[in-house]
Amino acid sequence: MSAPIAALLLLSALPNAGTWKINNWVPGDQVQLSITRQDGSSRWQMSTSYAIADLHGLTREQLRAVHGDVAFKLERDAGTFVFEGKTTLGVGSGRFRFEANPAFREKLASLGYPAPDDEAMLGMAMRDVSLDYAAQVKELGLKNVEVEDLFAFRDRGISLEHLRDVASIGYPGLTAQGVTTLSDHGVNGKYMKGMKTSGYRMLEVEEVTQLHDRGISPEFVSGLVKAGRASIPFEEIILLHDHGISPAYVASVEAAGFKDLTTEQIVRLHDHGID
Q1: Cβ distance 208 to 192 under 8 Å?
Q2: Structural domain of residue 141, as residue ranges?
Q3: End-to-end CA distance of the chain
Q4: How far apart are CA 37 and CA 14, in angstroms?
Q5: Which of 205, 275, 269, 198 minimizes the C-alpha distance to 231?
Q6: Predicted TM-score of the model (pTM)
Q7: Which of 7-16, 44-53, 146-155, 229-238 has the lowest average pLDDT?
């Protein structure tokens, strides 16, 4: 069993209730709210900043009071968190429970997502994955979008604007996992678009990330294409770059009449200092 699957099974075994802590030590309209779920030795915790206005039933005065009993709610499309407890001078703690919204589950399934279980519903509520957000992601045309992909986008701070930018480039068969991989490697839409219009063949996501990780620019690739190397194997692009061979050098070799040299032969010329 893989680690991610094992983790999901572990979380699904935890109750949709637990304890909470809050603090508002720094004056302002934001609070840090942490919730913890535990069953025996299994424990899960998540901490997020919220505006006090989002916690319906809780006021700043209650938070800052010397002692106070509080009851408040955090409402999301996927369901509602119900909190009860005590606050003292800007900090508080107590118990919470999560009440899933059955209508949300049905509407999400109607968008083409697998019907989420209770664990996924709680995860969507914690990340504020709304029905509108889920619908807009579906409209991008990415392949194989699952609820877990929405989590990945939210957890990595991948905005809808970025998703639209990447999806609009038209990489065939681009999956949600592919978008996540590109984001993890710092690849933006401009870089992807440059690679697509370089004149080289359409690259796979893994190939794009390899080039990006090595600092190989779209201009480098398009330069090789203009130098007559449009059909060289992908690995040879990396080979030329790793040896510090510029597209201009390749073009000069071609211009000198050596049009049939292999990439390996060009590398040997360059490594021996032959201009």
Answers
A1: yes
A2: 101-184
A3: 55
A4: 7
A5: 198
A6: 0.81
A7: 7-16
